[in-house]
Structure formats: structure tokens, C-alpha cells
Amino acid sequence: MASSAVGGRKSKSSGRGKNDVRSLKRKRDVDEHETLQKAVEGLDLKGEIKDFKDLPLSQPTSRGLEASHFKTLTDIQSKAVPLALKGRDILGAAKTGSGKTLSFLVPVLENLYRATWTELDGLGALIISPTRELAIQIFEVLRKIGRYHTFSAGLVIGGKSLQEERERLGRMNILVCTPGRMLQHMDQTAAFEVDNLQMLVLDEADRIMDMGFQTSVDAIVEHLPKQRQTMLFSATQTKKVSDLARLSLRDPEYVAVHEAAAQATPTTLQQYYVVTPLPEKLNTLFSFIRSNLKAKIIVFMSSGKQVRFVYESFRHMQPGIPLLHLHGRQKQTARLDITSKFSATKNSCIFATDVVARGLDFPAVDWVIQMDCPEDADTYIHRVGRTARYERAGKAVLFLDPSEVEGMVKRLELKKVPIQQTKARDKKQQSIQSQLQNMCFQDPELKYLGQKAFVSYAKSVFVQKDKDIFNISKYDLEGYASSIGLPGAPKIKFQRGEDMKKIKNAPRAAISSDEESDEEKDKNSKKPEVRTKYDRMFERRNQDVLSGHYSKMIAGADDEQLADADEDNDFLSVKRVVPINSEEDSDDDGVAASGPAAKVIPGIGKEPLVIDSKRREKLLKSKKKLANLKEKGTKVVFDEDGVAHQIYELEDEDDFAKRGSAETQRAKFLEEEAARVREADLDDKQLAKQKKREKKEKRKAREEAQAAGLSEHEGPTLADEDGQDPLELLRSLPMADDEEKERPAKRPKKWFEDDSEDEKKTSKRKGRVIEAEDEPETLEDLEALAAGLLN
């Protein structure tokens, strides 16, 4: 009993010790939170803070930043983080690659930590991103710096299982999401509540404010509580009052880093533009890639269909560098795989839409190429921001059509973007137009992609708001269609629809007068459009019938251009400006349009015969067809080369005299003929000997067969043990054909007879055959056989 009492006293004392430890820990946490809160309240906003250790941060956040190798603050971080820690609403604007992500992630973690946020409190912070790739990148940074916190964080983007997200959504403290999927959960997931939300963050806020996301963001904000902290960050920020009112910002602090700077883009970024006509853009792009095979390149285009066509066509031409493509139509798993591949490679080229333009951090990008003009200067700034990040060097090139140059350069100057003109070296310029035509000719699917790419590009130009830059009537669309391998420009629906609206709204009299005047103009001024056989060939479904012939036709033009592909790595030159030689382009176009050379056969008729198609060549193999083309009363012979000659041709006296005198030529002719006759005699003798030998061998084989008792025409007979032939009985039986011959012909029916009488007669004749197993011996056997016959 005593020992048990002692043990009981020990257990009570140990329980009190654990409670004391817990209470001490709780008290220490409370003291730490109070100290942290006082430090944040006393933080001097005007003071200059350079390192994260100078900020009043919690121990888990400090450890996470140190483990992720974040030590010094960037300009935007030093200004935005102290304000955000104090709970202010922020509008942040800074250059691309300046560290805006940490400017809102650090305050999110700290504010929730100081509020002692737990899993039971629900959602505390909502971070909205315009693209899935950017949301994934933000979530990865959050995982790194928040690894020592106890908060639960989730990623909510499209392309993943909705049911799995629903099950976990109610337990999350921090959510990184895209607008569409977030609104879907707010409307459909019953367990998802946002009543306790403390912070709302919009990364790339100007893009989220665009028309594509405006309705979704408005609907999300309606669900959220009014009392919250809101932060907006972007490389190009707006101060629109309507935007601020819609998001319910309370006295926001506008934090702008680049406004006082001399330029809006990083100083380590070299920026150029090339005046390239629309039909020459693909040639220039391919030449540039061939000249920079050891670089990491991003090529921006205006539509996903363009991205797919250029990727597929360049992949067939194999420029010598790994190629990737990324656009919004791809599945989420494929997009993640492509972004990870491009991040991991040292030299590759990715064709992408503006899905990649915002916020994404690809390491060590050397070049950013904008094949299509961006819609505005802000989009340009975001695109070139994929290179020269975190004070590294980078280069960017913008391809501009002559109609876009003046307006776009002015817009960039107003945004403080330093850009200078350059030109492609004529020595390095290559033309891939004939190769694209050949590929579209062979592959109907690639031709279909080209048509879709053309239409999508034309529509993207047509819908642009800035008509000073984008005027679709100034673009050479016919030349662009030819440059991507199409036989002609596809019809575009929006142009036809606009014409139909004008016709519907116009009065009938005006329409009739306009139609008449147009017809008269066409008759007087326009010539009828001539469509060549190659145009019709492109429209056929079985386009690969002549693909081999077509590739031979255009192969010569490409070999010379690709021979000098790797002479010099410098594709763009700022110092030396060489004009583009237009004669080479016209020659290439002529090769592609003229078709194969015609075959001329002289000597058949008065005029030489021209064979310009395989069908005509096949028809002229007939002697009858050739006879119709010959002059009457003449006869032609063909030499070994297939050239036709008259059977008797007169020779000039001078040509005859050149070969010697008549006696010399006669002696030479007789000698050649005698030698030819001797050779023919030897061949005839050899052939006669061969035939005689074969005849002798056949006779000997026949005699040997007869000696063995076998006839030449009769095979060996089968005999049984008694010496009788078992097939003798079968040979004696009449054949089926003999029975048909012996059977009398059917009597023709009278007019009063019908088929029923024939059936009765035939049924009588066709009786059943009953086989008796044994011959009937008794009267009972006979009666049984008779009964069977009667039945």
C-alpha cells in the first residue's frame, strides 16, 4: 500500500510538471506575440531597411527566409513590407523581377502569426493570380519561406480534380488561386467559408482588372468581408478610382519604385526592334534561332493557334535547338511539364502566348523575342521581364511591321522604355517559304493549322483597341498567307460579316446602283483572276500525290540558303545596317510559283511537242496518239535518249565531208557491218547449240521414264492386294454432266397448266429413299418395309 501511495504521489507531481511546462510555454508565446506587436507598431516607416533581420519578424518566418537564402531586401520590399506589417492597404508597382512576391507573402505569414491564427479559424488570406503557372510559382515560394509555420496552405487552380479540392478547402488558412476556380468553389462548395478573411492579395493586378477577369473578381469581392487588408501588386499599376472602389480599398498606400527611375525596365536589359514586313517574320525568326543555338529563348505570339503552327513546322525543319510550346489550350499537366522542362534546360526555345508573360521566373533566359506586336506598352514590359531578372543581363527583340513602327515606338517612349532599332544581317537571312509550302502540300493537317493560325492572327489584329498601331488594311495578309505555306489567304468571317451589315443597313436603290457600278468597274479595270493548277492542287484532299515531284522542284532553292547557316553567331547588328536584298525573295517566290520545267520533244511534227504534265506524257506513250501529231507521209524513229528523228534525214555536204571521203566512209561502214554480222552469227550459233542440247536432254529423260514402265502422259495406278484396280469401279460410273446430258428436256407448260401440277408430279417422282439394313426374310419384315414406304 505504501509503495502504491508513493507511486500515486509521483504521478500527481509529474502531471503538475507537464502543466507547468505548458503554461510556461503559453506564457512565453504570449509575451513573444506582445513584443512582436509592439515592435511592429513602433516600426519607423521613413527609415531605410536593407536586410530581413532588421524587420520585426517572427522566428518561423526568419528561419524560412534564411533557409531559402533570402537576406537583403529589394527596393519594393523595403517600402511595401513595413506598410503591410502595419495592416495598411497597398498598391505596389515595381519593375519585373524586383521581388514583388515576397512583398506580400512575408506580411501574409506575419499578420496571421500575430493574430494566432489556427486551423479552426478558417481562411485567413486569399492570394489571386491571373494564370495557373504564376499561381503555382507563388505557392512554391510560400512553401519555402513558410516551412516552419503551422499554417495550412492550398493551391486552387483549374485543370485539377474539383472533388479533391472541395474536401480540403475548409481546412485551409492560406489559399493561392485563379479567379475562375475560386468563384466556382464559392458558388458550389457548401463547406467553404470566407467570413473570417483577414487579407486579400491580387498579384499582377492590372491583368486581373482586365475585361476577361473583371466579372469574376467583382463576384469574388462580393463574397468577402468588408473589413480586411487588401494589397495589389504589378509591374504596371493603375490608379483608377473605379478599380479602387470596386475592391473596397481603405486609404491605400501607393508604393511605386520605377516612377522616379529613368526607365521602366531593368538597366541590364538590352532592347531592340526590327522593322520586318509581316511576310518576312517567320524567315527572320527561323534565321535568328539558327544563329543562336546555344541560347535560352522565349518567343511570344498573339494566339495559341500561331504557337502550335510555328512549333509543328519548325519541329519538322529541325533548327538544331530543343523546341517547346505553351498556350492556354493545353492540359494542366502538360503545361506544368513544359514549364519545368524549360526551367531545367540551358539552351532551348519556347513558343508561347501571354500566358507566360506575367510573373513567371525562368532562370537564365538570354533572349525574349516578340514576333507579334504587343497590344500595349504594359504588355511589352511584362514580356521582356522574363529576362534580365534580379539584376542579371538579358536581351529583347521586337518584330514590327512597317505600319506598327511609329505608333508602338511612341507608346514605349512614353512609358520610359529605351529601345533602339537594329536590322538583320543579310548574310544570315534565310527563306523557309518554299519549305513551308512543301510541308503544307504534303501534310493536310499542317496546312489546316496554318489556316487557323492565319485567321487567329488576323482576328487578334482586328480586335485591338489602338487603331493607330493596328490597322488591318495596312497589313500584307496575302503575302503572310504565302509565307506560311498557304496557296491563298483564307476567308475571314468578321470581314464578311461587316460587309453584310453595311448591305443590310443600306437602301435598296443604293445597293443596286453600287452593285452596277462595281460590276462596271470590274469589267473596265480588273482582269479575270487566273488560278494555276498548283492553286487547285493545294485544294485537293489527296495532296500528297505529287509530293515527291514538288519537293524535288523546290529543293534546290533551300540547299544554297541553309549552307551558310552556321558561319556567324551574330544575327542582329546595331552598328552596320545592310539593306535587305529583294531580288532573292522575288527569285524564291518565282521558284515556288512557276512549277516544274516543261519537256520539249522536237521532230514529231512541224512544231516541237511540249509535255507539261504527267498525264500528257502518259497519253503520248500511245502510238495512236503520236500518229495524230505527226506530219502525214512521214515516219519517225526514236533513239536511245527517246528523241524522235525522221527515218531518212538529209545531211549537209559540209558535215559529210568532215568525216572523210566517200570511199573511206564506205570502207568503214562495210567493216563495221561485217563485224556486227560476225557477232550476230556467233550469237545465233550459241543459241542453236543451246536449243539442241535441251532437246537431247528431254528425249533422254523420256526414254528413261518409258524404261521404268511409266507413260509420259499417264500417272501410276493404285492396286490392291488382289491385283485389281480400286478406281476401276469409279471410272465406270457415269459423271454428273453425263446424267444431265441424258436427262430429257423439260416439256413446255400449256397455257392452262400452273406450277402446282408440276410440284405434285415432282413430289411423286422425288420419293424418300428408305434403306433396309438387312434383306427381308419373313412376312413381318416385308410388312414393316411396306409400312415405311407408305408413310
From TrEMBL:
Acidic residues bias: start-end ranges: 772-783
Database matches in PROSITE patterns: DEAD_ATP_HELICASE, HELICASE_ATP_BIND_1, HELICASE_CTER, Q_MOTIF
**Which of the seven top EC classes does this enzyme belong to?**
hydrolase
Please list the residue ranges annotated as the Helicase C-terminal domain: 281-440
Q: Please name the GO terms that the record assigns under molecular function.
A: ATP binding; ATP hydrolysis activity; identical protein binding; RNA binding; RNA helicase activity
Show where the DEAD-box RNA helicase Q domain sits: 50-78
Please note every region of biased composition (Basic residues): 688-699
Compartment list: Nucleus, Nucleolus
Entry's family note: Belongs to the DEAD box helicase family.
Q: What does this protein do?
A: RNA helicase.
| Record protein name field | ATP-dependent RNA helicase
